[in-house]
Amino acid sequence: MSVNPLSQISYPKSDEYQCKAHLNLYDSPNCDRLATQAASGRHLRLIFVETGNDKSSQVCLCEDDYPGWVSLSDLSLLQPCTLPYQARSFSESEIKKLLLKAIAFTHQAMQQPNYYLWGGTVGPNYDCSGLMQAAFASAQIWLPRDAYQQEGFTQPIAITELQPGDLIFFGTSQKATHVGLYLGNDAYIHSSGKSIGRNGIGIDCLGEQGDEVTRSYYQQLRGAGRVVRSYEPQGRREI
Fold first, then answer.
1. If residue 70 lies in a helix (H) or strand (E), which one and from where to where?
2. Is the pTM of this model over 0.85?
3. Residue 20 and residue 25: Cα distance in Å, rounded?
4. How many C-beta atoms surround the C-beta of residue 159 within 10 A?
5. Which of 72, 70, 4 minimizes the C-alpha distance to 38?
6. How far is CA 13 from CA 17, 39, 77, 144, in A?
7. Residues 53-67: pLDDT tens digits?
8. Cis before 233? omega within 30
9. What is each CA distance from 53 to 57, 68, 70, 227, in whole angstroms?
10. Angle 103-176-60 (CA atoms, 0-180°, nearest 5)?
């Protein structure tokens, strides 16, 4: 028999909650594999489903529509929202002015001791798309969560058209599996894994010259995209 997750906390029922602290979201009701993280202040909706599970609750993050599962023991980190999340709209010119802030965020993150964390979005440990999302969120610009979603969200551009603040995508011919932020002069910053990567945040060059990591990612280059808007949730579009 499933348990109403709100019975575990003393808050009144609400359609939307806000994180009082950083929160881990998992990719299954077992809560044994991190899917993403929600920084303090983020909004989410609880989704009530009859699963027979008494350990977790399904949720959906409001800013990027990302689904996941939260341990019932972490529901005390939520508080009912007094006002629902409202997506903010930016013009392309406004976003261009904010790109330096996103770039600065990645440099600051690199200065902290860190390692690659699958699902990491709140630092100091990030995965590739988590670092991109956090960097743009620092400028109040929201991107979708995963690399392939970010590729589909951005405006496609040629590699020869790259400007600082553009996203570079890597992977297979079928799907983007990795993303980095272009810095200029053929350099990009990204969080890469331990096997073929930096095991954390580092700067690499777009080219076949360099070490094994640089060459490996260049061989997986798919293309590039420009951020020209901020993500608007599908479930509730507001201005």
1. strand 67-71
2. yes
3. 14
4. 14
5. 70
6. 10, 22, 15, 28
7. 678 999 999 999 999
8. no
9. 8, 14, 12, 39
10. 80
